[in-house]
Amino acid sequence: MSPRRDAQRNHARLLSEARRLFAERGIDAPLDELATRAGVGAGTVYRHFASRDALVRELYDTAVAELHQFAPEILGAETGWRSVELYLERLGAWVADSPFLPAVMRRVAELDPSYRPGAEFEAAIDGLVARAQAEGSLRADVTAVDLSVLVDMLGSLGQYGRQYLPFWRRQLTIVLDGLRARPGTTPMPVAGQAFAAFHDMSHAKGPRPAG
Amino acid sequence: MSPRRDAQRNHARLLSEARRLFAERGIDAPLDELATRAGVGAGTVYRHFASRDALVRELYDTAVAELHQFAPEILGAETGWRSVELYLERLGAWVADSPFLPAVMRRVAELDPSYRPGAEFEAAIDGLVARAQAEGSLRADVTAVDLSVLVDMLGSLGQYGRQYLPFWRRQLTIVLDGLRARPGTTPMPVAGQAFAAFHDMSHAKGPRPAG
DNA sequence: GGGTAAACGGAGGCGACCCTCCGTATCCTA
DNA sequence: TAGGATACGGAGGGTCGCCTCCGTTTACCC
Fold first, then answer.
1. For chain C, which bases have at least one atom within 7 A of a protein Cβ?
2. Is the entire prediction scored with pTM above 0.90?
3. CATH: 1.10.3470, 2.160.20, 1.10.357, 2.60.40. Which one for A52-202?
């Protein structure tokens, strides 16, 4: 039995306003304000999301679902290099447009470290890198994790606010030129990381105390 | 007349613990906890910093002062290219090691948008870029602002926590290779920005509400 | 070492936010 | 369109963090 129509509308409205609120004021913004913005009473917030954590968890799941939409275009590109371009471009734009994501990821990992619904993408990204390196277009010393870190890096420019969104593609251009296989590239320092380590890292609670 | 020795010690201790606390828990972390961590009473926090905002402001000023230490090495490098490398490396490492900075910058800009003590560096960075481009080592289509954005981008990897600090230099290598002047670089899209716009942007409160 | 000024600590009043509760409104089915 | 079930709103009790206040302690000067 599906929920009443007003309940469906409020649920969607709350999720949508929560993205904007969390993006603007951080993940600990007052839920009373969320209620106000969504035009509902405080009680309605807690009827739909038992706690702030439940809301955060649902935002996380929504984000993972959105990720699936990108796969066909990125993996189906004509060349391996084009896949790399699309991977950085599409996901970078998506992260930049979802500035609430890093905090949400950290919070979810804090609540339940074993919850990793994004793991299914790892093999696909590995394959994408292998294909581009086999065709000789992507420098041989980068890993799939390096690319994922670059996506986060480019996406972090979303913190600057929507008025910056037209500009981040300049940095993307530099990064892509740095990824091309060509004579004279500088060898990458330090060993790369495994995906599991990357997950723990990108979901890390925050900087560990110094020393 | 200089303050009593215990007051000096507590002031320094509070600033140092505030960095760690804000890095771990965000800029709105409870000040009572700051007092506990610094081993002082709550009253002492407010004697040294009239409000949270005053503390944030002082952290900001401390950061700007730290910036001055980097100038001689970066600007005095033997070649323009080496200056570019040092600029990204030293400042990227510094930002990555100061994860409380972005929030502090935003808060200060919110409190007093006209406060811009970092403006003095702009001419120096412009000069650094001009020098490297004149010697033909830095691609001609990047601006000083692009480099500053790259510093922020690389520094954002500091959010991952200290255990990631050994790895971000891999991304730095890619970025530097992307900055080299060489045949076959991709033209930069969109026009670059002026420093004033960059300041407003990097100190922006957060994403503006969608459309 | 004694006196004074400076600084300290932490209890507690106050305000903000969390979340629940229940009388009221809305939706859906027949 | 009537009745029951579902969902809503917002007042309010409880908690937590902010910041002040003042009796006590510490540093400094002679």
1. 6-12, 16-22, 26-28
2. yes
3. 1.10.357
